[in-house]
Amino acid sequence: MDSPVPPRPAEPRPRRRDRHGRGMRGPVAPPQVPLSASRSETFRDLVADSVDRLERRWPQLAEVEFLVMDVPTAQDESVPLGSSVPAGKERPARIVVYRRPVEIRTKSRDDRAMLVHEIVVEQVAELLGLAPESVDPRYGQE
Questions:
Q1: How far is Cα 133 from Cα 112, in angstroms, rounded to an integer?
Q2: What contacts 134, CB < 8 A, 6 or more positions away?
Q3: pLDDT value at residue 79
Q4: C-alpha dihedral over 129, 126, 86, 72, to 10 degrees?
Q5: What CA–CA distance (Å, rounded) separates 77 from 82?
Q6: Percent of the chain whose pLDDT exceeds 70
Q7: What is the tens place of the pLDDT at every residue in 72-96?
Q8: 66: closest CA among 101, 94, 30?
Q9: How far apart are CA 1 and CA 104, in angstroms?
Q10: What does the pLDDT read at residue 116?
Q11: pTM across the whole model
C-alpha cells in the first residue's frame, strides 16, 4: 500500500534557525576572549595603549583628544596614517590615527602596535613642536 503524499501548503512556512530544537546559537567566543573583539575595537585599544604610555611622560596630553577614523577624508598622492590639529578657541587639540591605511601596511598585531605607536609619537611631536626622539626615547628603535 502506498502512503498518500500530503498536499503542499499554499504559502511556504517561514524557515527557522532552530532546526533541531536546541535553541538559537550563542556567540562563538565569550566576551573576555580577544577573538570576540572586532578589528576596530582592537585597533582602538592599540591607540589607547600608546597614548597611556606617552601620558605617563607627558601629562599635558590629557587635554588632547585622540581619535580613530577608518580612512582619511581628503586623498592626495600619498595616504596619511595620522594627522594632528592644534587646539582652537572652543575645541581641544586632536590627533587622528587612520585605521585602514595602518592595517593595510602591517601583517601582524605586533607590527601594527609598533606602527600605531610610531604614528602617535610623530603626531604628538608635531603638536608639541618637538622631535619624535624627545617625545619617546625609544622611537624608531623597536
A1: 20
A2: 125
A3: 83
A4: 170
A5: 15
A6: 73
A7: 887 667 888 899 888 888 889 999 9
A8: 94
A9: 67
A10: 94
A11: 0.73
d(CA 20, CA 6): 23
Mind listing the pLDDT tens digit for each residue in 24-68? 666 666 767 766 668 888 899 999 999 999 999 898 888 999 999
Residue 5 backbone zone (phi > 0: left; psi -120 to 50: alpha; other: beta): beta
The Cα–Cα gap between 110 and 18 comes to 40
Distance of CA 12 to the CA centre of its chain: 43
Spatial neighbors of 123 by CB under 8 A, at least 6 apart, are 82, 83, 84, 95, 96, 97
Q: How many CB atoms lie within 10 A of CB 120?
A: 25
C-alpha cell at 132: 619624535
Q: What is the pLDDT of residue 36?
A: 62
Containing H/E element for 116?
helix 109-128
H/E element holding 114? helix 109-128
Residue 99's nearest CA partner among 71, 78, 76, 119 is 71
Distance CA 89, CA 77 (A): 31
